[in-house]
């Protein structure tokens, strides 16, 4: 899926898009929507635009774009976010203390778990506990995290 890069670029050039905060009532930005839909190209465009200031925005639940991409299993989007210098909320926790690794593990996305665990900033995520005391490994479905921690 490529999204609609041309439409995205046009929105970024429109003064009202940026001037009105670019968030919906739930706190979602264009980056949240692109990440949750698997639109890596649109994520790249948003991150490359100096006029898009909501890179670190969180939804009402505290989710970053990385949480959403990880929860949906969009490995390419996760890679785009992890490698872009403007995206600095890699280890962010949501309203219940969960990070992107929790989200990927709970949904059983092995490849995303492996990608996250391979990223220098994310290695600390495996030992992080949410507010209920659960690590990503505790929530993992189908051995998602074990594959990332013990590759064959």
Automatic annotation (TrEMBL):
Classification via InterPro entries: Ankyrin_rpt, Ankyrin_rpt-contain_sf
Record has Transmembrane helix as a keyword: no
Coiled coil: none
The organism's place on the tree of life at top rank: Eukaryota
Entry keyword Signal: no
Gene Ontology biological-process annotations: protein K6-linked ubiquitination
Matches recorded under Gene3D superfamilies: Ankyrin repeat-containing domain (1.25.40.20)
Pfam families tied to this protein: Ank, Ank_2
Name of the featured protein: Uncharacterized protein
Organism lineage: Eukaryota, Sar, Alveolata, Dinophyceae, Suessiales
